[in-house]
Amino acid sequence: VYCRVPNSSAEVVEEAVQSAKKAFQTWSKTTPSHRSAMLNKIADLIEAKLDEFAKAESRDQGKPVWLARAVDIPRAVYNLRFFATSILHTINSSTVQSQFDAINYTTRSPIGVAGLISPWNLPLYLLTFKIAPALAAGNVVVAKPSEMTSVTAWMMAAAMQEAGLPAGVCNIVMGTGPRTGSAIVRHPGVPIISFTGSTPTAEIIQRESAPMCKKLSLELGGKNPSVVFADANLDEAIPTHVRSCFSNQGEICLCTSRVFVQREIFEQFVVRFAAEAQKIKLGAPYEADTKMGALISKEHAAKVKGYITGALDEGGKIVCGHGVDSPPDLPEKHKQGYYVQPTIITGVSDNARCMQEEIFGPVVCIVPFDSEEEVIRRANGVKYGLAACVWSRDVGRIHRVAHQLQAGTVWTNCWMVRDLNMPFGGMKASGIGREGFKESLEFFSEVKTICIKH
Q1: DSSP labels for 324-342?
Q2: Which residues are CB-neighbours of 285 under 8 A, at least 6 positions away?
Q3: Cys-Cys crosslink for 259: which of 104, 358, 366, 405, Cβ 3.0 to 4.6 Å?
Q4: Could you tell me if residue 140 is left (phi over 0), alpha (psi between -120 and 50 degrees) or otherwise beta?
C-alpha cells in the first residue's frame, strides 16, 4: 500500500467551508501585492522540492518521472507565479458621460468560497491552475483533488503552511466525487465551482448546482481532430503527432485522437507514423529511458482495451500496438501493471465508437479524406469541441479551416503551444467558460459599475 486517502464526508466539507468563510473576512481585504508575495513564496517552496514532487506525481499517476520533472511540476510553479504577477496588472474600465456630468467606473471584488475539483491526469498542474487565480483574486478555497492522485496536493498543503498562508484560506479535502465532490457542489456556502474532468460528471454538477444559480467553469473532455493536408511537412508533422497522441499515455484532454489525412499521402503517413509509434518505450516510470508509463488504474486500462477490441468488431484494423505487437519488455514487478501500447487504428467509419467517444488513452484512429469541405464537416462531427490541429503550408487554407473548426483552440503546424494570456476552454460538450489570465480572474471575481454624478 503506497498511501491511504480519506473519503471525506459532508461533515468534513462543512468544516472546510466554515473555515474558509472565516478566513475570507481577512484574506479578501489583503492587497494584491500581499497575495502576490504569498503565491510566489508557495511557488518557491514547491520548486525547491521539485524532484520530490515529481517522483510523487509519477508514482501516483503512472507517468514517467522525467515528464513530471520537466512538465507537471514546473508548470504548477509557473501557474502560481503567473497569477501572482497577473493580479498586479489588472485594469478597470471607465467612461465619461459629459451630457449627464457623470463618470462610470468598474471595480472587481472577490466572491467568497471557491469550490475547485481537479482530475487525475495532470494532478498538481491542473489543481494550481485553479487555486492560483482563485487566491490571487482574493477568494478562499475548498479544493478536492482526484482521490486517485492526491499526494502532491497534500504536499502542496504542507508548502502552503510553511509559506505562512493563513489557516482557512486554502482547504484541501480528499475523497471521491460522489461523496466529497458532491458535498462541495451542493453546499449553499460555495457560490462558485470550477471543475476539470469528464462531461458526464459535469452534467451531474450542473444538475446539483442549478437550484442555487452557482457560477460554473467546466473544462471537459475532447475528441480532438488533426487535419493533415497533402502539402504538410511530414518531417515535422509525424514526430509532433507522436507527442500529441501518446504524451502522458494519451491521458490529456488535449491529446489528438482522430487524424484525418488527405488521401494522396494517407498510406505514407500511416507507415511513417506507425514506425515512430513502435519506437516508444514502455517501462517503469522511474527509468530514465521510459517514454510511456502505466495508465491510471486497472479499470481505466480495461476501458481503453475495450475500445480497441470494439474497433475490430466495427471493421477496423490495428496497425500497431495492443493486440498485434509483442508485449513490452517490463521489469518483473511491473509485468502486471496497467500498460497499453501506443495503438493506431485504421479502417473505421466516422460513426464508430472509437471515433465518437473519448478514450483517454494511447489510441488514435487515422482515416483518409479528399476535400477541404469534407474534412471540416467530418472533423466537426462529434459532440466535443476542445482542440484541433491543422497541418498545411498554405496559409490561406490554414485560416479558412481554423475558422470553421468547432474547437476552443486550433493549433496549426504545432501542438500544445500554450500561452496563459490566451483563453483556454472548449465548445459544445467540451465545457463552459474559459480559463487564462483575463478569463480566470474575471471568473473568480464580481464586477461592479459605480456611477458618480459631479
Answers
A1: TSPPP---GGGTTS-----
A2: 58, 59, 62, 63, 64, 65, 293, 294
A3: 366
A4: beta
Report the alpha-carbon distance of residue 192 to residue 152 in Å, rounded.
Answer: 24
**Known catalytic membership, residue 14:** no
- What cell was used for 144? 478536492
In three state form, how does the secondary structure of 398-427 look?
HHHHHHHCCCCEEEECCCCCCCCCCCECCE
Catalytic residue (one of 170, 245, 253, 255): 253
Instruction: Give pLDDT tens digits for 53-98.
Output: 999 999 999 999 999 999 999 999 999 999 999 999 988 899 999 9
* Residue 213 annotated to the active site: no
| Confidence at 186, pLDDT banded by 50, 70, 90 | very high
The terminus-to-terminus CA distance of the chain in angstroms comes to 69
CB 270 within 8 A of CB 139: no
Cell digits of residue 334 = 511491473
Q: Which of 57, 147, 170, 219 is catalytic?
A: 219
CB 231 within 8 A of CB 393: yes
DSSP of 280-292: PPB--TTSTT--B
Give the pLDDT confidence of 138-176 residue by residue, as tens digits: 999 999 999 999 999 999 999 999 999 999 999 999 999
| Residue 1 predicted with pLDDT over 90 | no
User: Dihedral of the CA atoms 66, 252, 301, 195 (nearest 10)?
Assistant: 120
Beta-strand ranges (E) seen in 245-376 are 256-262, 317-320, 343-346, 363-369
Q: Determine the Cα–Cα distance for residues 422 and 431; give it in Å rounded to an integer.
A: 16
Strands (DSSP E) found in 224-292: 224-228, 256-262
Reduced to 3 states (helix: H, G, I; strand: E, B; else coil), residue 307 is helix
